[in-house]
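Write out this protein's structure.
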Amino acid sequence: RALAWVVCAWLLFREAAAEKQAGQALRLWWVLNVIPATLLLRTDIIALEKVLGDGGEGMGPRAVALILRTGSYAPTLFLAACGLLQMDSWTRGAAARATAATDSTFPFPPGAAAGSSPGDAEAPPKPQGAGDSVASFFDKLTFRWCNPVLVLGASRPLEHSDLFQLAVADTSGVNEVHLQRSWRAERLRTPRGKAPSFLKALVRAFGPYFAVTGCLKIINDLAVFVGPYMIARITAYIEGSSHEPLTQVYAYTFLMFAGATVQSIAVGQYFFRGFRLGLRMRAGIGQLVYQKSLALSYSARAKFGVGAIVSYMQIDAGKLGDSMPYLHLIWSAWLQVSIATALLYQQVGVAGFAGLAVLVLLMPLNTKVAQTQMRLTRATMRTRDRRVKFTNEVISGIRIVKFFAWEPSMLDAIGERREAELVEVRRNAIWGAFSTFLWGATPLLVTVVTFVLYSALGNELTASKAFTSLSLFNVLRFPLNAIPSSITRVVDVLVVTRRLGDFMAAEEVEENRCATEAEWARALELRRQGYNRFLAAPAPRREGVAEEPVLVIEDGDFAWPA
């Protein structure tokens, strides 16, 4: 194994000299391989001490194998560091040449090319490149690839041209095609007589990316409980109830730091991917709604109106995009509550179930509040659509409004619709505030009930149990506060996807459609009646000017809806 790692290190240097990059999967394997190697290192060192110590075998074949295996940890660690710091598609030489060719310092901070410092440049140049598309694993985990924009923004106000190039996967065209494909597949899979589900189309289009983001949330949820568990072990050692070695207690403190680090990285990546998914979904839905609006039939266009279509493109797409980072909380919050309750039972016994009992008792009330919020959200959207549609109609016919001096009456009509909308918005806000208050007071209520019940059962509340329980209650605070917002997000998603599904399933203008028998008969009747009698007389021909027809139609038949 040591020889294999030496060969890998030699190949790494050769790739760097040839300015080639190792594959992303290979570099990820280098990084992950250091975890089992670190776990086996302590075992190998203990085994080597026994072999070389008194009563051991001495310097035999087994000792040589253990020495080589222990020594192979150094190249393992080196390759892991290279895998973390190596960029995806650029080397430092290629970056330096790009800097000289394009006056760009990416991936180095603006004004700080290789070997220089940010303070050496008087006017930092614009950052170029594709941001995290070529960043290393370390830069992606720590968001170091944002440094060029941050350094430039500290020196002067940012402009649009200062930003990184948009990744291809984030463009509106790519996401619109992806979502259009999923919607067509959903329409083909839906049985005749049933309405296709826009929510299923979204899941088919963006589900895999959303699922990977959920894995990061699981890592964050598990890392959250490392701190309380280590606090319990450390406080038990301080009280004297635990007789563990001091070195092991120091290891507990290091694990607390490692757990907090993993939690910070996981939650950062989770929200970054969540907001990126929301951006992609918003761009794709906006383009998809726009394409659909161009293909609507006359009756469907009159049914929805321009105001509703604009609302779908802006408000509804924005609600879906804003909900993506928080949808995983609907299950993640309950997972954290379950784990915290189990750990509380381990600390304070039956009193640990007091918090769970409080949550169960509050579930009917929370369900009623969620249903009321869903109903009020639908009512708010309906009144908003009516107001926007009427306002657009007034603006479209503003000449007639001005001609007949209808401004006061039109303003009163718009004001009435706005007042009706504000009534629904106010009711929705009141219920939202009540829901937030209810769930905000829940952690305090859970803490009081648990400690009171534990003391009433005749138990002694020690420092170890108190500090551990308080840390678990602190963990409970976020999921309990996040549950109402996650319920609101789910309600918004269900309402919006239902509205978008109705719009996307609306009737469209058929391409190359043949006229029906009734339309053909109507066209023939118009020809028989001499429909050209309504045309104005041709303009007199001017002398000396060659007249050429602008438009010629031969044997044309026209029909309009009755």
